[in-house]
Design brief:
- The protein contains four helices and no strands.
- By secondary structure, the chain is mainly alpha-helical.
- The radius of gyration is 34 Å and the shape is rod-shaped.
- The two termini are 37 Å apart.
C-alpha cells in the first residue's frame, strides 16, 4: 500500500465521520449554540455586529464548502461499493443458473436410470436397494432444487 493510498483511505474516513456527525443531533446542538454565542457577542460588546457577521459568514461558507466535498466523497465511495455488490450478485445469479442446469441434467439422468431399472433388473432385492438409493438421491436433488429456487427469489 502506497502513501497515496493510505492518505486517500484516511481522507475517506474523515469524510465519512464528518458526514455522519453533521447529520447528528449533537451537530445540531453545537451549531445552534455557536450561532447563539455569535449573536450574543455583539450584545455584550465583545465584537461589533458587522465583524461578527463577517466572521460568521466566512466560517459558515467554508464549512458548507468542506461539507459538500465530504458528502460528495461519501456518495462516490458508496456508489463504488454498490457497483461491486451488483457485480457479485450477477456472478451469484450466474452460478445459481449453472447449478440449476446441473440439477436438471441430474434429474433427467435419474429418470433415465429409473426407466432402465424397470427394464433390466429382475431381482427384487437389488431392485429395492437401487430404488431406495435413487429415491434418496432424488430427495436430495429435490431439496437442492428447492434451495436454488429460494435463492433465485431472494
Amino acid at each position: 500500500m502506497t502513501i497515496h493510498d493510505i492518505r486517500k483511505i484516511r481522507l475517506e474516513k474523515i469524510a465519512d465521520k464528518a458526514t455522519r456527525w453533521i447529520g447528528s443531533t449533537t451537530s445540531l446542538i453545537v451549531h445552534s449554540i455557536a450561532f447563539i454565542v455569535a449573536f450574543v457577542l455583539p450584545l455584550i460588546h465583545v465584537i461589533s455586529f458587522e465583524e461578527m457577521l463577517l466572521v460568521l459568514t466566512t466560517i459558515v461558507s467554508l464549512e458548507a464548502i468542506y461539507l459538500s466535498i465530504f458528502i460528495q466523497m461519501s456518495v462516490n465511495k458508496n456508489s463504488q461499493d454498490i457497483e461491486i455488490i451488483q457485480e457479485d450478485v450477477g456472478e451469484i445469479q450466474e452460478d445459481i443458473d449453472e447449478i440449476q442446469k446441473d440439477v436438471d441434467e441430474i434429474q433427467e439422468d435419474i429418470e433415465d436410470m429409473e426407466d432402465e431399472e424397470e427394464e433390466i433388473i429382475d431381482d427384487s432385492i437389488i431392485e429395492k436397494k437401487e430404488a431406495d438409493a435413487l429415491a434418496a438421491i432424488q430427495s436430495i436433488l429435490l431439496k437442492l432444487q428447492k434451495d436454488i429456487d429460494l435463492l433465485k427469489h431472494k
